[in-house]
Amino acid sequence: MEVIIQSNAEDGCVLGAKIIAKTVREKPDAVLGLATGRTPERLYRELVRMHREEGLDFSRVTTFNLDEYVGLPPEHRQSYRYFMNEHLFRHINIDLANTHVPAGTAQDLQAECRDYEERITAAGGIDVQLLGLGRNGHIGFNEPTGSLRSRTWIKILSEQTLNDNAAVFGDRDAMPRHAVTMGIGTIMEARQVVLLAFGPAKVRAVMEMIEGPLSAICPGSALQAHPRAIVVLDEASAAGLRYASHYRWVDQNKLAWQRYD
Length: 261
What we know:
8 helices; alpha/beta; Rossmann fold
């Protein structure tokens, strides 16, 4: 696990965008796994800027989103399909037919989950998967105690997740209780993972993910076993790390080809 501590969330998102852009430039038909929520919004703005000002080309890129709320149609303002259209897809030259988000309104959700896995496989697998980290350590909507080998499936959201996300729905009662999400096993098959976690509210989850035991109680800790996981933090979220000085030392002493600038 590569841990990179940036001064602030702004710098962290710009770095995350550079990592994704590097993948797209090196492999124009890259398959990207994307995430939603407040954390990656700034990253998407940077990718849009790179497209407009530097010619970053998404015309051959395919994307798969991590998750979607059960019951929300694509046009719902809180659906993740709506989020992706508004924050990224409609601002770049990507073919919308090549952008995939789980269908939370599918009549047969189990069949939708199986089909989503098949589409990822048919596309050749995910080259780089973007992740956020929940305050309880979840990645995607894989909540604590779930299987670390799970595939795309329907998950029950935890009380912590409901409390954290309820504000965008107006109140908790208006928020869906279920979501379709890529499983931990699906995420772990991505060739590279980039996880962003910022702010003091993420201190405990970051500590448990990076320096705690690999455990289903902290789903993000599964990334300790990933061959190419990059964790991008700000100073606030890294405040509880015992080995923070070591992570900074490693980052400062990389060879030129190991950097993302």
